[in-house]
Amino acid sequence: MLQAQRALCSQAKPSAGGWQALRFDGGAFRLKSTAELARALLVLRLCAWPPLVTHGLALQSWAQRLLGSRISGALLRSSIYGQFVAGESVEEIRGCLQQLHALGLRSLLAVPTEEEPDSATKTGETWYEANLHAMLRCVDLSRDLVVSPGPRLMQLKVTALTSPRLCKDLTSWIKRPGPCSELSPERLAEAMDSGQNLQVSCLNAEQNQHLQASLTRLYRVAQYAQAQHVRLLVDAEYTFINPALCLLVSALALRYNKPQEGGPWVWNTYQAYLKDTHARLAQDAEAAHRAGLAFGVKLVRGAYLEKERAVARLQGTGDLTQPDYEATSRSYSRCLELMLSQVASHGPTCHLMVASHNEESIHQATKRMWQLGIPVDGPVCFGQLLGMCDHVSLALGQSGYAVYKSIPYGSLEEVIPYLTRRAQENRSVLQGARREQALLSQELWRRLQGGDLRVPH
Fold first, then answer.
1. Three-class SS of residue 430?
2. How confident is the model at residue 394 (pLDDT cuts 50, 70, 90)?
């Protein structure tokens, strides 16, 4: 495998004389075992089948009744779970991370928490306190198990620590015309620091108590993550709670994104499929620099398109999303150009993750990095999901770029609902993975013809 790595590195790295487009032709698949390639091809084809994505949890329940928990669990572990999840035990997670490191890839651990915004099944402080401890454990795992160079990153989902219903109420208040000093980032940051009860007039006593508890949980995670040198990438969620999430992230940023303390420690996620993203991104970048704060951004196309449009139809409100994939791609390109220019201008105080499976977006990013003089191992990194888009991830990693794989971990019971939701949110990505399937088929056929059926390394 080491010889193959060296050969691929020499082929992939841009020449000193000028930029050359990376080759996403599946050549980097030669670093993977035949068993891994065969599983990836099978799972990606299954995930592109709409009934499986739509009825995943029902099919799992049916399989358990028909086959029993042991057999159905073994089938899931050898297929979908094995493809997209690091494992459950510390040893399994460590093995996955070490294997990625050997392939030139980095790790972005994610706690698989699931809750619908209007769900009443997971409520109460006990649920959120348990999630707090899971997040703190994720910080420890990111510190102890990640062996790759560069910054240690982990994902943080705010609604794992605070009620989506509270975020919905806060968003309604935030959207009212005129300034609201009660809900300023500065006031929330002060409440985080002091631990004193925050009173917001638009909330009742129970909601105010929950808000203070939520601020304390967020503060504890951010404080501990900074102490352990782990950066937090906050997930974006639905538009009807995102303003509240952005408010909470802004409060954390005031405390943890100071350049003199090595910030940004807290990054926010921006979804290019929303019409106002470019304007908000430009505004937030300017506000951060004006306040003397470092600025961290994870740029995605977005995963909640179908739900957002359904909510807009149900409520009779205007559709906040781009009209089609092409418009979303144009938005992503504009946001990417904006952020790369910010990185080039502000250096180490501005960080960007290009979180995309789209080859054209990756080409744009790498070309503009070269044109702007941004080093491949500098403040710009790339991100893809574990088990997907490996032909892009491997090509980037073998060329020296910092590329992270988003990695959920946990038991089957914890992770399968999470994976089902991610599959439903990423239908277009899964159904658009035909090129990756074709490249996998080509590499498997090449090995069959040449008799090169390698065992797992």
1. helix
2. very high
CA atoms within 13 A on the CB side of 241: 19
Specify the range with the lowest mean pLDDT, choosing from 81-95, 164-178, 390-404. Answer: 164-178
Planar angle of CA 72, 78, 79, nearest 5 degrees? 90
For residue range 311-322, list pLDDT tens digits in order: 777 776 777 888
Kindly report the backbone phi and psi dihedral angles of residue 107, in degrees, each rounded to the nearest multiple of 5, phi listed first: -120, 135
CB-based contact 220:132 (threshold 8 Å): yes
Q: Report the Cα 141 to chain-centroid distance in Å.
A: 17
User: Quick one: 456 exposed, middle or buried, by C-beta within 10 A (0-12, 13-18, 19+)?
Assistant: exposed
Length of the chain: 457
What CA–CA distances, in Å, run from 197 to 111, 136, 182, 208, 262?
Answer: 28, 23, 13, 8, 30
What is the CATH class of 95-425?
alpha beta
Q: How many CB atoms lie within 10 A of CB 298?
A: 24
435: left (phi over 0), alpha (psi -120 to 50) or beta: alpha
User: In the chain, what are the domain boundaries?
Assistant: 95-425
